[in-house]
Structures are given as structure tokens and as C-alpha cells.
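Agenda item 2: iron/sulfur cluster complex prediction
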Amino acid sequence: MPKVAFYTLGCKLNFSETSTIGEQFLNKGFNIVEFKDHADVYVINTCTVTDNADKECRQIVRRALRENPNAFIAVTGCYAQLRPDEIAEIEGVDAVFGSNEKFKIFSILESFEKKELSCIYVADTEELNNEFNSAHSTDADSRTRAFFKIQDGCDYKCTFCTIPLARGKSRSMHHEEVISQFKQLVNSGYKEIILTGVNVGDYGNSSDIKLYDILKDLVEIPGDFRIRISSIEPNLLTEDIIKLTAENKKLCSHFHIPLQSGSSDVLKLMQRRYNASFYKDRINKIKELIPDCGIGVDVIVGSPGETHERFLETYNFIKDLPISYLHVFTYSERPNTKAINMQGNVEIAERRKRNNMLRILSEKKRNEFYRSMIGKELEVIFEHQNYNGFMKGFSSNYVRIINSFNENLINKITPVLIKEIKENEGIAETYTVNNTLTTLAG
Ligand code: SF4
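Presented output:
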């Protein structure tokens, strides 16, 4: 049986798409093996957000060829869509597939025979807009979390971002299709379904059915499951969605909301669609309706025009916000973006320093949030891995929880009591028997 191995860089959307490509290989009689193992075909799903995408891609290709010099190497993903020529020049690459073509590998290729020169199968960005390729992750063994792509592309014009070029315009899976595929995931036993996309909040932008309407329908589906939204732009997180989340346990009390900067001036330069005070109001509204809600925040440091004062504005803004953790990104110049030609360049060393400051702030925030959960009852879904006699899982509000391994509690929505938080790890120990909450001895 031929073997295929996958390597995925970047976001959850990429992971769900790799899974879908993997399913196609399985259907064609392939075995999926680990990337470090000997395979006949290696598929690398790239990301354009990654720093040094080309260097990273080169290294991964080399790793694959070390394992099997005769393997067929296919590269796809956002980086492949944007710079196919660059990838085709990497020694050992046989085929480059664009954002749409990656779902058609078997109709494009007749065989996986190694070639002298690499072939490029990448359509223009314009053509991306005509198709929506569905995807969801299928971790067949655990069945705990599924990443379900319901939206793709983005119509926004954030000055630092190349994603709209790599993924095309905003488009969504048809409403009925979402319901039907979601039901299939529930019936397959997934307990947490994470709605993903490039700009999920923009779901249904060109139709009457918006994200709120989809959520309202999904929570009515019978079954024991919960829904998480992977990430949502602040201007698209409506009060209706917050209220629905507050009222319905099937919606996780957790939002991941990109902020990017706490300075309204920088937000303007970035062409974001809100200012700092709007963002703050959103967060306060969430906390008013869902006091224990976990809130994750994306921030970019060192973008053009982020002066020292504006960075401090961001720092203090976040410090005073009741959020739970940050994902901190360091700005890096990307070809074909508006930002690359903007004034106010920030030194690389300064960018790193700012990144570090926010990471420390993130740890403090996480710790504070986790500590505020001590003594509270949370619902967790434990995953199947056994970490030396312990199991781990996430609560609805995104607190990482650890407990002694108990087969009977795996992949079930389980109420637990948070007893303590372990230093630096933000881990709570909990124990539950027959629905009676009992804490573990220290
Ligand atoms: S919202 Fe902005 S940052 Fe996000 S994908 Fe769209 S253009 Fe990029």
C-alpha cells in the first residue's frame, strides 16, 4: 500500500484542510504515516504568515527527501498560492498546488512519479472566489475536537495582511450544508466542534443568513456537544451572538478576538474596522453577560507607525482589559501589502522587545484568569492521551485542566471543580465521581 505523509504550517483552517486532503488519499488506498517516517508522497501545506516561509519550506522538503530521496514532494497552502515560482525552484519539489487545486490533486495528477522539473498548478486569485471547498479535521482516534471550515477568504483590507491574496474573497458554505455536515460530525462522536474560516464572523456576508443565524440553528441540534468559534473580528461579534452564548451552554464561553493594536491611530493605519474604545466596549459587554468568559486576543507588535508611545498605549490598554491571554505576533514585511511601503519602520530588536513585554503580560493575564476559576465548577472534555497517568482537556471557557487518568471520563462533557492552579502552567487538578464533585488531595 502506498504511503503519504503530511506537514502543516499555520492556522487551524490549514489543519482542517490537510485532514480533508488526507481523506482523499485514504480513499485512494494510501496509508497515512508520520512525517518523520518513510513515505512515497509527502504533502506540505504552507502558510504565508509564518516568518521565513521559504526557508522553512526548504527545510521541510529536505527532511522529507532525507527519509526517502525518491518520494514525490507536493507543496500547497497560502505560500504556494502566492509564490509558486519560488517553491518550484526548491530542489526536489515535484508539484505546487494552489489554494483550490490542493483539493483536486487526484484529478490533476495521473501518477506520483518523480519529475525532472516541478509543475505548478495554481489558478489566479480571482478564480479562488468561485469555489468553496469544504474541510473538517478528522482525528479518527480521539473524536474529541473537530475543526469545521464554514467560511473562506476575506474582503477586508488590513494593510499588513496577505491572506486575502492567498485565499480570495469572503465566501461561505451553504447554510443547509453547514447543518448537514455539522450533524454528521456530532453523529461521528465529536464533542467539541470548532467553527473555522479566515474570517468566520463574516459568514454569509452576501446572504441573509449570518453567523448568528447559523449558531441559533446549530444549538438546536440534539446531542451532547459544544461549539467553539475559532476567532471572530470585534466588529462582527454582535450583541446577539454574545447574548446567545450567555444563554446557551452549547456555545463555549470563550471568544478569540483579534485586537492587533490598542492604539486607535495604529488601528487606523492598519485599516482595521474598529477603534480601541469600540473594542473595549465589546469586551465589557461580554464580561457583563458572561462573567467567566475566556477571552483570547491577537496583537501585532512593531507594525509601521507603532511609535514607542503608541506601543505603550497598547500595553496599558491590554493591561486594563479583563482578557485571559494573548497571541503575540511580531510584524514582518510581506510583499504586495500596503504596509511594506508605509513610514515609521520599527527596528527589529525593538519589535522583539515589545513582543517579549506582551508575552510576559499574557502570562500574567492567564494566571489571573486561571486563579479566578479556583472553587468554580467548569465543564471539561478530557482528551484520550495518557500523560504519565494524567489526562488533559479544555473547559468551555478555555482553561487547560489536568486530572488523574480515568478512561470513563474521556471525551465526555464532564463537570469538574477547580481546586488549584499549578505555577506557570495554569493547570487545575480536579476529580469527579458519579457526578459528585470531590477534589483531589493536594
Ligand atoms: S480580517 Fe484583516 S487580518 Fe484578518 S484575514 Fe482579513 S485582511 Fe487579514
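Discussion summary: Residues 348-371 form the longest helix (24 residues).
Owner for follow-up: CH.
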